Amino acid sequence: MSRTFEIGPVQVGAGQLFLIAGPCVIESEAHVRKMADAIQRITSDLGVPYIFKASYDKANRTSVKSFRGPGLVEGARILGALARETGLPVLTDVHEPGHCDVVAEAVDVLQIPAFLCRQTDLLVAAGKTGRAVNIKKGQFVAPWDMRYPVEKTKSTGNERVFLTERGASFGYNTLVVDYRSLPVMREYAPVVFDGTHSVQQPSVAGGVSGGQPEFIPLLARAAVAAGVDGLFLEVHDDPANAKSDGANALDLKRLKPLLETLLAIHAAVPQPA
């Protein structure tokens, strides 16, 4: 049975589909505010609970030359100001245990990147902050083994933990989604489906990752039909010129029609207990 908890006004695991969305990385303070405002208008119109996301540092970029973001101090300042000014819950990645307390002062959800989902010290540090923790399933981890990252995080006494599916490695430079993972992981915690990283083609484009964003709606529809608690989508107003993950981002103009379809599927399909 999934546990239910709150992240600000967002009920996680309570049966209402929620959205985590925003650009991959903080490109500028003006840009994250523009994206937050645009997505908030769409979700408000549709009645979709919404958590904004953006990373202050993309520490796992393929190339050392790739844009990483403004860094811990400036990034936390930008995200904290956005949360205060918009009233939105905010999520961001953490890559090091020492970052967790700093970031927790600014945001509502600490996200454990997929590559780091087994890092005990990071999971425990995130859990100790008392903030909600989203653990992305590693591309190399079986869904039934995600019970252990959940246990590590909850060992701190923090029960506000959820999991995100983002595809599994299939040979080189390819990800596939095993939809059996959704009900399997939901035995341990509420589950979110990442429709944008699941179409990523890691490191395929000469030092950067490629993607097949045309398949985002297909995978997202299947995930909602399978019964997930929320959706995670990296959304950008100009994917071709995004500074990170533009190749697998959803274009902002496609967000509203996709959400309308997903809400219709969610309403039509009995949700798992």
TrEMBL record:
It comes from Acidicapsa dinghuensis. The keyword Glycosyltransferase does not apply. Transmembrane segments: none annotated. Keywords: Cytoplasm, Lipopolysaccharide biosynthesis, Transferase. The gene is kdsA. This is 2-dehydro-3-deoxyphosphooctonate aldolase. It catalyses: D-arabinose 5-phosphate + phosphoenolpyruvate + H2O = 3-deoxy-alpha-D-manno-2-octulosonate-8-phosphate + phosphate. Pfam families: DAHP_synth_1. InterPro entries: Aldolase_TIM, DAHP1/KDSA, KDO8P_synthase. Gene3D superfamilies: Aldolase class I. SUPFAM superfamilies: Aldolase. HAMAP family: KDO8P_synth (MF_00056). Its main location: cytoplasm. Pathway: Bacterial outer membrane biogenesis; lipopolysaccharide biosynthesis; Carbohydrate biosynthesis; 3-deoxy-D-manno-octulosonate biosynthesis; 3-deoxy-D-manno-octulosonate from D-ribulose 5-phosphate: step 2/3. Its EC number is 2.5.1.55.
